Amino acid sequence: MIKADRRVRRRIGLTLGILGALATTPPGLAQTAATYGLKSGKPYAGTQLKFLICCATAGQFAQMIKLTGEGSEFQKLTGITVKWENTPYEALQQKILVEATTGNTYDVVAWVDAWGEAFKSQMLPLNSRIAADKINMKDYPNAYIEASTDTAGNIVGLPFRGHPLVLFYRKDVFNELKLKVPTTWQDVVKTATVIQQKKPDMAGLSTMYGVSAGQNLFSWVSMLWGNGGDILDKTGRPVFNSAKGVQATQFYIDVLRKNKVTNAAATTFAEPESSSEILQGRAAMWVGWWWYWARFADPKAVTPAVLNNIGFAPAPGWAGGKTQNYALIWPLGIFKNSKHPDAAWEFVKYVTSTQVQKKVAANRSIPAEADNTIVTFSGMNDPKVNAANGGIPKVGAQALRTARTLPQVKTWAEIQSVLEVGINQMATGANVKTTLDRMARDVDAIQKRAGYYK
């Protein structure tokens, strides 16, 4: 693109010298800016944006830092520079809350879906900007939009980094034992039981019940929703201890305690330990985020038996019920107190555009930065993106058609703590019904104190 641009400028150099005021941006770059939905002419040149974010080593983020940093494509197109803050994940939520209420340091922020309701009122509504730039919001999963919208119906963020849950499994084990890939949680347990009978040195399924940032809730809420239960009702009252909730929760705990098809140490496992079971060949199945696909193809991350030997399918549903799994999304928005909201919008449009996201998701030139993450259906179904990622983007799109997000309530951090501790207690022996009832009372007190109801 840069070489082509130079040829154009050489051809019309004299004309530009006379009529330079008619074109402040070289023609080649103006066309490229248009493909990303950016404004031509660099109206915000010289602006420096500060982006509150974590996890710079995540493949998607590492690539996008290069695309928006000093000397990057984004800077050449807009004249805008962007400083990515690499806040530790554990400190990010609190830092966002402080910035939203009392700060004026950052312009742009990305957050985990369930955090948002606590500070969405301090985010800039984007509806008019979305309409003006004709951004197709129907190209995003409903769960992603819900998590990016405030209670008044204002979209305050565009989906940025998102993950459906998928079922990863050992293809060689399934082929050897002539097993079908399970589509329900009930079939997962049956299949895991067969695997352990035939291969006693391997866990049929890797799971996580430890207390760590709510990670032990991911499979649980999928079972709960699939069985027709819910966490909160429309008024914000806890309903996870209903008959359907008890049934789904008992099933989740039985995977460990009754069926024993997972590592007994799963009571202490979070995502890193749980994923390591399949990465290191100690488990035949694992339900986790689709971005792990890149790790299964990395010889530095897996044992030889696992390398290039992992299959995937949409995360299981509930037998006789709905297939509704949790979809994690990081919306990207602009603080109301940003000094540069218009320049910030250019950045938001660029990194969330399907064109940029496809460029990142299809790039496997640096294994450590390979990342199949993409947030639009058109991107997930793109042939090049799927060719680069073994077809998992299409499977993710299928899972996201019916996926849900966590409750968008400002009290979620407190509720999550109650839920994840309770799950761990049940996994270590506490009675399911009794514990769920106690958890419901605790959540009820939280919701009343927050004013959701009396």
From TrEMBL:
Query: Which UniProt keywords are listed?
Result: Signal, Sugar transport, Transport
Taxonomy, superkingdom:
Bacteria
Gene3D superfamilies found in the cross-reference section: Periplasmic binding protein-like II
User: Entry's InterPro entries?
Assistant: Bact_solute-bd_prot1, SBP
One Pfam match, given by its short name, reads SBP_bac_1
Q: Which residues form the signal peptide?
A: 1-30
Q: Which PANTHER family match?
A: ARABINOSE-BINDING PROTEIN-RELATED (PTHR43649), DIACETYLCHITOBIOSE BINDING PROTEIN DASA (PTHR43649:SF12)
Can you name this protein? Multiple sugar transport system substrate-binding protein
Q: Which organism is it from?
A: Deinococcus hopiensis KR-140
